[in-house]
Amino acid sequence: MPKGSEELTNARKAEIIDACAALYETMGFRDITIRDIGAKTSFTRTSIYNYFHTKEEIFLALLQREHEVWIADLKEIARRHRKLSAEEFADALAHTLEKRGCMLKLMSMNLYDMEVNSRLENLVLFKKAYAEALGAVTCCLEQFFPAMTGRDREDFLYAFFPFLFGVYPYTSHTDKQKEAMELAHVEYVPHSIYGLVRPFAARLLQSLDERPNIF
Question: What is the CATH T-level fold of the domain 1-51, as seen in this structure?
Fold first, then answer.
């Protein structure tokens, strides 16, 4: 058992987030309740309110943690490689994201609900993690593509990060969605997270590299 109130608080929060993540693997965001999350922890359901006021705050903390793990992977790319080509960096970047299916799912489906129904201090913590993710990608661009201008890096970020919000819907479909597409005569083409991210990132980097510098 952790000693000290701060350590205990962090352990309890982690246990709650773990329970939420486990439920999210098989249940939808709207179907999961505080009661469901509490049932998977080692303490009472009402104790959850000592740490999170709403279900959305728990999910936002899960999304924050997902970003923190992704940031660590991005920093590891920069640490392990002195140089990478556009294709090599796109490959490494895509591999970091194929492990973050939960992050992509939350971003694409539930971000608005989580942010609106969370206290400001919780939202600030998430925004800091999101900003750090932007910074980690920026550091990689500065290291591997020193010829890129500040505008080039900004263009990459403002194309790549919005793109991530649409990755999950194109890579994960329920049987009902597949049946609906078949009945609507919409061709279903299966895609993986890696299969979407890698070519997009590579093309984006190459297009920026080939763009004439008018300044």
Answer: Arc Repressor Mutant, subunit A (1.10.10)
